[in-house]
Amino acid sequence: xxxxTYPADIAxxxxxxxxxxxxxxxxxxxxxxxxxxxxxxxxxxxxILWRRGKxxxxxxxxxxxxxxxxxxxxxxxxxAKALRARRTCRHCGVVKPYYIPRRYGCCLDCLGGQ
Length: 114
Description:
This protein has a five-stranded mixed β-sheet. A two-stranded antiparallel ribbon has the order 4-7. The radius of gyration is 23 Å and the shape is elongated. The chain has helices at residues 29-34, 73-87, 108-113; strands at 4-7, 13-18, 26-27, 37-38, 46-50, 55-61, 66-67. By secondary structure, the chain is of the alpha+beta class. The chain is built from three helices and seven strands; from the N terminus they run βββαββββαα. A hairpin with a 5-residue loop joins strand 1 and strand 2. The chain has two domains: 4-67, no CATH class; 73-113, no CATH class.
């Protein structure tokens, strides 16, 4: 396996792997998200470079990853209430199936009737 080290700090070296060459036990944020995990407050331990070093993906240890936090019922209710408020017209009070344009501040039906 090919490993290149770039100094991330004077005191330590940051392991860098070519695209699709990362060892088992390391995952990107997207891979953690797909597995229902999060970095859990831990820093990246390595990186993957591709596109001639212009693109980077940081790698996190799977054994240190924590399960994703889920919203409580109260948080979900608050989000639903906020999203419902974005769909409610200020003028006619009707809940629309689309978000009310902030530019106008009212639904398209009320805008056309002005």
